[in-house]
Amino acid sequence: MSREFANRFPHQFSGGQRQRVGIARALIMNPKLIIADESISALDVSIQAQIVNLMKDIQKETGLSYLFIAHDLAMVKYISDRIGVLHFGHLLETGTTEEIFNNPIHPYTKSLLSAVPHPNPILERKREVYHYNYRDSGFDYEMEQEVKLSPTHSVWLEPKFQAKYLPNPL
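User: That's the sequence. What structure does it adopt?
Assistant: Structure tokens below.
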């Protein structure tokens, strides 16, 4: 941004400009980690892409890590190397982006991914949505145990559900 922006008040910036200012404020401290909680959700799609690409460029240049909290799974897939799926404050599944998107195990993860619209209209019409309702599921997140599916992919399930949902754990 040019120097003329230095005398502006926050309300005089666009959403994208405010995001850039926020990123700059965070970076000035030379952090190792930035927690970005829904940092782009209120932005126009074209501005979202600019901000995310800026974040990725900064990450490559500095080795910075992000904890990117979002509901936009397409953006999560684009920006993330690893994903953790949370529901009601409980970690349900972790893995690489490829593991989570290609082999989701927890029913909640499956329901999230099945709800993502497909850009191809033919495939979109054939898309099956996996429904998950915690209250009706019988799950008790307090009783779940971590099961390692691979060195990088874990799922948390109660022992009574493990046979139903797990392939072959390590």
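Residues 45-62 form the longest helix (18 residues).
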